[in-house]
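Batch 3, record 17
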Amino acid sequence: MLRWPGAVHGAEVPLPPVRVTWGAAALISLCYYLSQSAWLAGLGFWTLYRPLIGGMLVGIILGDPAGGARAGAAINLAYLGFIATGGALPSDISLAGYVGTTLVLAGGLDESAALALTVPAGMLGYVIYQLRMTLDVAFVHWADRFAARGDARGVVLCNTVPPQALLLILSAVPCFLAVYHGPAWLGGAMAHMPEWLLPGLSLIGGLLPAMGIAMTLRFLWRGVNGAYFVLAFVISSLLNIPALSIALMAAAVAAIHVRLSGHSSLPGKDEVAVASDPQKAVSAPVGAKPSPSEQSQVVPSLRRRDLLASWLNWLFFSHACYNYERMQGTGFAHAMSPVLRRLYPQRQRLAAALQRHLVYYNAEPNLGALVNGVVVALEEARAQGKGVSEETIQAAKASLMGPLSGLGDTLIQGSVAPMLLSLGIGLAREGSLIGPWLYILSIALVVWGVGWWAYLRGYHEGNVRIAVTLQRGILRPVLAGVEVVGSIVLGSLAARLVQLRTPLVVQIGQMTLRLQEDVLDKLFPQALPLAAVLLYLALLRRRVSPRWLVAGTFVLGTGARALGLL
Amino acid sequence: MRLNEMDSDRPKPVRFCLVRIDDRLLHGQVVVNWVRTLRPRRIAIVDDDLAANHTAVSVLEAACPAGLALWVGTVAEAACALAEQSPVPPADTMILLRSPGQARALYEAGVRYEALNLGCLGVEAGRTRVHRQVSLSPEEMEALQYLASVGVVVSVQALPSDRAVSLATLLRRASRSRRRRPSA
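Prediction for the assembled complex:
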């Protein structure tokens, strides 16, 4: 009944425009490895892991950057609702992006059809991830042995070299095989494919973006955000407003929204209230900075260099040896190592300190850097003999890691990243390479800015209650504003990128009524895309699992084409 | 207050929105994935130690998603607060616990939940890993087996989109790996 523009029929598939050479396949595999590696200053997961960026890189490698970014953007749109919390992944969107884009550029596959084939690639990536999380456990036990001897360098080594070498083998080899042999294999498979299957796949690929948008929208659908989404959708479907202009408008609307809804209290207002809280007075002394008079010459104290080194270690290596047994345990110990070496020159005390930070730890790394800051302050106070017990330190970590992860994931993975990605995708689909680069720049500012800021706030406060202060004074209004911007950018993106039209013709006596041209285009041209997004959203909110939605879309899509309804 | 296991007039189990054991409580999997999938109106955190720690409670309050009520209390208080007559019905209440011991205590205190979800339980001294992110001590294993024996459906499921793994499957795997590595 419905026609998806851009769908390519099996017979029309052009010959592969480029061949993936041995070297190109190796480079693509290296990018896939780097997307999960620890070498990109905490940005791998936020940049190279996203199909928008991965697609552009494949494009650069294969000689068509804009085409790669375009294909990557299409794939990323379907996976816009991707969110990895607490070490559990729904799928590996990174491998999906690298394999999918290669199939488009080198396999000559239609974007929508390639999108359908990213699903098995994502599942393969998930298997790789689980294997890595299981095998990394061995290196944790190596680190234990170094820690017991008070060897901080050994712990750092165990957190980096062996797990990263393992990851290189585990990720690059399957990726190489998929991108090197994939296009040729796909060509062979397509020759034997039933006529109806490939157009069916394109059809599914046309519907998946609507689902990706609905999955993201589910995270933003609160209060009047839905109204902002519909407003932006309608405006964008009637007027041709460039993505960047929409984003500016969204920021202005968000500012008004935050002010009017009373989220915005002057920053500091709540902080004052908390500061005068008797509760804090009771628990404050443990982390209080020493006054110059009590700072004895023999007692070690931290320098700014130590703080920066510790934060950088965390930024780079928090997930370097991510594993199912202690998650970021070795990452945390690695991050603490410059601080602990300064504070505990005696080997025995250093060993004890390293061991207490090798325990189970798992937190959202950016906003979660606040916990690192608090723990550094507590360790400093402990080393200076201020009566901070080991239990106090462990309790601070245990009570903060969960809540801070909840706040961090809601803010960054749930709102900021989808918002910036929507903008980047919109620009990339307009054919501009500014999209991916703007996304990289802005997400880098968020990841580094939030991380360093949270770390310093945690260190200077040195107290668990800083989390409460920040949430009330800053995070709550920021989150409300980001959600409004996200809803508007997403609404505009849906209007421009979800393409659904119906060729349905109704005969009423002598009159022939074309549903799309004669009715919908006169009332609301983009009615079907909006209906599709809202239908997916309604199903998701009725707790229909995304897996069933994908399966249903596959059956409906192939069925409709196979029956000749299109 | 020990429950008579063979009690024939045992009250019908109550269907809560979700009853989950997760030692990190309000972290991303809970506030992003579960809350936005199941959309409860209230989160109830039941833990004897935590309820006494005002600072920890205030941090949890800060981390609670906007628009959701948060209740933190002891097992003894929970029986009353989570009763079916309470302002927020069980179907809209998500219960979070930190350990299987507290889950058993809650059940024995009269909160007869129908199903129990195991999320993340980190490795600690005395615990062995039985599933990706779930580690249990022998006592905790026993508490879960007790709950299963009284009819609670116990399963491991990190995210709503994951497949649930039943306790029986888990125990079978755990005993198999123990046989393979007797020293562990």
